[in-house]
Amino acid sequence: MTPVVECLVAFLFGSVAGLLMQRSRFCNTAALRDAIMFKTYRNTKAMLVAMMILTIGFTGFMSVGAGHPLQFDVGLNTFAGLFLFGIGMVLAGACTVSTWVKAGEGNIGALWALIFTFVGMFLFSLVWSASWWPPAPQTMTGQVNLPALQLGFANAQTLQDKLGVPAIVFGLVQTALLFALYRGILRRERAQHAEHEKHQKEHQKKKAAKVATVEA
Amino acid sequence: MEFFRKTLDPIIALSAIAVLDIFMFLLMGAWTVGGGETMMTGLMAQAVLGDELQRIPFWNVVFPPHADYWKIYISLGMLFGAFVGAVLSKEFYWRVPRHLSEWILITIGGLLMGFGIRLAYICNVSTFFGLMPEMNLGGYLAMSGIVAGAWVGSMIYKKMLEGDV
């Protein structure tokens, strides 16, 4: 594919994704924040379902050597970077997806978050230019490199190559785990619902008793 | 049209996006946002600084700015798709944060997001909709990081709501 076609395909995918997220109010930040703060799981469930579909799809195609998996070394920086990101997204009330979607709805706060995401990236480019850490893609080896705090590269494909077991098998195990998590959330929601109904019934009973006392 | 009147179930929306993301994975690579945003940062910095940008090694070695980088157009597409959705459902209106504290939180949050994405080489979209489904070791590291970060962020936010900070 030529770069122009790639850009057109990407724009088309982004447009459909943006439209669907706008209509569904899906937010990645809410998927984590609401589960932690408010014990509500509307977005968390959607995220888990998508991850199950993707795990089967990606590992299925990886089993036959198809697809374009991401390839770069990971390490302490992967954890630390997303840790900072996690704090940032809750404070900003938006993540990389919702900043674009909310900006498209006319949200100036989201646009402001986006501008400062760019500024944060530029600041990091200055820090990297002084430290040269984490290693640049050209110097990544795919192997464990402890002095550079790097753990190398591993995914379902490398597992398949090393163990001779098709990637989809590992994918199905991961999907089963994600499904267990999803079912756990459903059980918790049912318990919350039952608790809520119990409280409502008790409240109505008390109200009826009060009315009866007043009438007597 | 019903689609623009009622809120769509996010499970349906995300399932549809996941199927499309599998096509993206086969054609070019999984859904990602951070890479495109970095390239946009580089292009904007180049527009402002011109040749001076060459003096910052990051923009020579890691991300030489190119306008034909496909990941940029995923983000622009999301902006466009959301705008169309908001206009057709009459949900487009300017929303401006009212309090100074909101502006400060958004500024700090944005800076942390941008810095974090580049430190990790990935964003939250790649974590959940790319690396994790590819069963990349980085996906598990990133997910642990983002959950821990979201927990810390939520605690800070909670304290602020309670007026302790």
How would you describe what is shown here?
- The complex is a heterodimer of chains A (216) and B (165).
- Chain A is mainly alpha-helical and 216 residues long.
- Chain A is extended, with a radius of gyration of 24 Å.
- Chain A has 8 helices and 2 strands; from the N terminus they run αααβαααβαα.
- Chain A has helices spanning 3-24, 28-37, 42-63, 76-92, 96-104, 108-131, 156-163, 167-215, and strands at residues 74-75, 150-152.
- A two-stranded antiparallel ribbon of chain A has the order 1-2.
- Chain B is an all-alpha fold.
- Chain B contains 7 helices and no strands.
- Chain B has helices at residues 10-27, 34-49, 58-61, 70-88, 100-120, 124-131, 137-161.
- In chain B, α2 packs across α4 and α6 crosses α7.
- The model of chain B has no long low-confidence stretch (mean pLDDT 95).
- At the A-B interface, α1, α2, α3, β1 and α4 of A face α1, α2, α3, α4 and α5 of B.
Short characterization:
Chain A is 75% helix and 2% strand. Chain A has 216 residues and is mainly alpha-helical.
